[in-house]
Design goal:
With 202 residues, the chain is α+β, with helices and mostly antiparallel strands. It has helices spanning 7-17, 22-38, 55-63, 106-117, 123-142, 145-148, 192-198; strands at 45-49, 72-74, 81-86, 91-97, 149-154, 167-169, 176-178, 182-185, 188-191. 26% of the residues are buried. One of its GO terms (molecular function) is zinc ion binding.
Length: 202
C-alpha cells in the first residue's frame, strides 16, 4: 500500500527538513511503519537510527523522538536501519531498507552524483540525476511498507531512559563537560578533546 500519511503531514515534514528527497522519504515511511505498529507516539518511544541521513529528520518530526529528549540515539553504522521501541507497551522492532526498494538505480545514481559533486557533470547528466531522484522518490512513496523494509522484532528496550549527570570541570581547558564524557589521565579530569590531545594511543 502506498504512503497513508496525509499531504499536510508530509508538507510539514518537508518544511522541517528544508527540502524533499529520497532520503527524507525513507525516514518518512519508516516513521509511518512505527505509527502503524506502535500507535500514537508518546514519551516512552525510543528510536535508534543507524544512519545520519535526511530521513532522521522525518523520524523526529513524526514520532517525537529527538536527540534533546534522549530518545533518539544515533549509532554510526552507515546502515539504512531504524529500531523503534515503546517502553510502556514493552514492544519494538527494527526496520532495514530492502536493497530492491531502490529499484536498481544505485549504480547510475552514484556515478552521476559523484560527477556532480566533482563539478564535472554535464547539463544532461544533471537532468538525468534529477530524473532518477524524482523517480526513486515516487517509487518509495508508492511501495507497500512490507516491500520497502524487512522487520525484525526487538524483545528488550534498546537504551535506558536518559539520565541527568553531573558536569565536571576539565583541568586542562577549564570547560565543563558531562561526567560520562570525561576521562582521567595522569591524575587529572579531562574533557574528551583535551584527553585526545595528551593520550598518545588515541
Amino acid at each position: 500500500m502506498a504512503c497513508t500519511l496525509n499531504p499536510e503531514t508530509i508538507a510539514k515534514v518537508v518544511a522541517f527538513h528544508g527540502h524533499s528527497c529520497p532520503g527524507l522519504t525513507i525516514g518518512l515511511r519508516a516513521a509511518e511503519m512505527a505509527l502503524r505498529e506502535l500507535g500514537e507516539p508518546s514519551g516512552d518511544w525510543v528510536c535508534i537510527t543507524e544512519t545520519d541521513m535526511c530521513g532522521v529528520d522525518a523520524i523526529q518530526a513524526l514520532t517525537g523522538c529527538t536527540f534533546g529528549k534522549g530518545n533518539l540515539v544515533h549509532r554510526d553504522y552507515g546502515k539504512m536501519a531504524f529500531t523503534f521501541f515503546d517502553r510502556a507497551a514493552g514492544k519494538g522492532f527494527r526496520l532495514l531498507l530492502r536493497p530492491e526498494a531502490r529499484g536498481g538505480t544505485d549504480k547510475e545514481m552514484g556515478r552521476l552524483m559523484g560527477r556532480i559533486q566533482d563539478g564535472l557533470a554535464t547539463p544532461e547528466e544533471k537532468a538525468r540525476a534529477a530524473e532518477l531522484r524524482e523517480g526513486l522518490q515516487r517509487r518509495l512513496m508508492s511501495l507497500d511498507l512490507g516491500e520497502m523494509f524487512s522487520l525484525s522484532v526487538v524483545d528488550a528496550p534498546p537504551v535506558r531512559p536518559a539520565r541527568i549527570l553531573q558536569s565536571l570541570v576539565c583541568e586542562e581547558c577549564g570547560e565543563r563537560a558531562m561526567e560520562s564524557r570525561t576521562r582521567r589521565f595522569a591524575g587529572k579530569t579531562l574533557c574528551l578533546p583535551c584527553f585526545t590531545e595528551v593520550e598518545q594511543k588515541v
